[in-house]
Design brief:
Elements (H helix, E strand, L loop, with lengths): L9 E6 L4 H13 L3 E8 L6 H4 L5 E6 L5 H8 L4 E4 L12 H22 L3 E5 L14 E4 L12 H16 L11 E7 L1 E3 L4 H12 L3 E3 L10 E3 H14 L4 H4 L2 E5 L8 H9 L5 E3 L7 H18 L11 H7 L3 E3 L3 H6 L7 H15 L16
Helix pairs in contact: 1-7, 3-4, 4-5
């Protein structure tokens, strides 16, 4: 992929391109990758906002498909130069069965790898997660750690288990020969908790606050730090990795990178209040209003209720033993590996990330629009 001033030639495929992160990656690619000729957007559910992108200079091809179907993946991958595999089942609330989570996240990833090998696509970027590291089931803090920080990564929940297995598949595939004899070059990006325009859990907290008369109730001590990263910066990191992977294959191939930016270290709830506060919500309490043992009891009750009600209705509250443990365990990263390896610098400052997210939350009041979740990235 040599730099040139000639007509654009590259074909990219983004799986999960209509999801929260996927949409930002798609829009970022269209704005920041001048060598793009065709952008294939592969998703189980295609967004209507894709239509508006089809009028630009890059050919945008929407492909409705399922990553668990090997032949659908192979057809989408064939002829592409780079695959950004973001599709995944993100479920820590018990909406899907462990089997389904495994199928989509692990088998789906295996299908993407095999499709690259069979069709001769040489570059694969995988959206992994901080969850492949932790927090672990023992609740050990990971405080401002980096990619080399020793940590006992022990998982039980289907989501982190599936992401860890999938990441391992991607990294082990680095160096395998693709059709034509060239080596596959892969790497994995590990975002911490992503926030920004289109973030469903932020929307859930906002709606919950509105239901309680503009109030949210503190459940997590302010001292517990939770890593967060703005979606636009995560998208930018994907674009940059995809661009640099060929030139820096010996350095970047088979590597993992945490996704980071200048978002402050705060508790999950205090961080959310950076956006929900300016939208009129208040977080009640400087300390958790309920003792931890009571929260554990409530979370356990929720899990029991979910199990009992499953034959009748899907009960998926925000609070369950897993989400409580996640929110109550410090997990923050401090690293410059992405900057050292491929020159990453966050494209959005904390102030911009915050302003864009607040703007989006404020617009939620005006009801759903006809476009996508996020606006264009054109900046003044
Ligand atoms: N949201 C977060 O805080 C974080 C997310 N991630 C990872 O980022 C990726 C994207 O996550 P989000 O955008 O938050 O989730 P999302 O649910 O908004 O997006 C996932 C997309 O994948 C698509 N998809 C699901 N199953 C599919 C299938 N069988 N075939 C084709 N497409 C399918 C969905 O339709 C959706 O558009 C996931 O791989 C997730 O594990 C990693 C770290 C943090
Ligand atoms: C105890 C509750 C009272 O308000 C708060 C519950 C918050 C939880 C719903 C979230 C706390 C931590 C979040 C996860 C974290 O950001 C890491 C993630 C990485 C991913 O790859 C997917 C999303 C998530 C698991 C994210 C999900 C929501 C939390 C558990």
């Amino acid at each position: 992929m040599a730099q040139s001033t000639q007509a654009p030639t590259l074909v990219y495929l983004v799986t999960g391109g209509c999801g929260f992160l996927g949409e930002h990656i798609v829009r970022m690619l269209l704005e920041q990758e001048p060598r793009l000729r065709e952008l294939r957007v592969f998703d189980l559910h295609l967004g209507s906002w894709l239509e508006e992108l089809k009028t630009g200079p890059v050919q945008v091809t929407a492909i409705q498909g399922d990553v668990t179907e090997a032949h659908e993946v192979a057809a989408a991958v064939a002829g592409s130069h780079v695959v950004i595999h973001t599709a995944g089942l993100v479920d820590v609330f018990g909406k899907a069965s462990p089997k389904t989570i495994h199928k989509v996240n692990v088998q789906g990833t295996q299908n993407v790898i095999e499709a690259c090998i069979r069709t001769g696509t040489q570059f694969l970027v995988y959206t992994s997660s901080m969850e492949v590291v932790g927090p672990n089931v023992k609740g050990h803090p990971f405080y401002r750690g980096n990619e080399d920080t020793p940590y006992e990564a022990v998982h039980q929940h289907p989501y982190p288990c599936s992401k860890a297995l999938a990441e391992q598949l991607v990294l082990e595939a680095n160096g395998r020969k693709v059709n034509g004899g060239l080596p596959l070059v892969t790497c994995a990006l590990r975002p911490t908790g992503i926030y920004g325009e289109g973030h469903q859990i932020m929307r859930d907290f906002y709606n919950q606050g509105l239901r309680f008369g503009g109030r949210l109730f503190r459940a997590v001590p302010a001292s517990v730090e939770h890593g967060r990263v703005y979606v636009g910066n995560v998208a930018w990191m994907h674009v940059l990795v995809a661009r640099e992977l060929e030139q820096r294959a010996p350095l970047m191939g088979g590597q993992v990178y945490f996704c980071y930016d200048k978002s402050p270290y705060k508790s999950y709830e205090d961080f959310n209040m950076e956006f929900l506060g300016p939208c009129g919500l208040r977080l009640i309490g400087t300390h958790p209003l309920l003792p931890y043992w009571l929260l554990v009891l409530l979370a356990t009750l929720n899990a029991l209720l979910q199990w009992l009600l499953r034959p009748l209705v899907l009960y998926t509250p925000l609070l369950n033993p897993y989400t409580l443990a996640m929110a109550n365990t410090t997990f923050t990263v401090s690293t410059n590996k992405a900057q050292r390896h491929f020159g990453y610098k966050p494209i959005f400052s904390w102030e911009e990330s915050k302003a864009r997210t607040i703007h989006w939350v404020q617009a939620l009041d005006q009801g759903p629009g006809t476009g996508g979740h996020c606006g264009p990235y054109s900046r003044s």
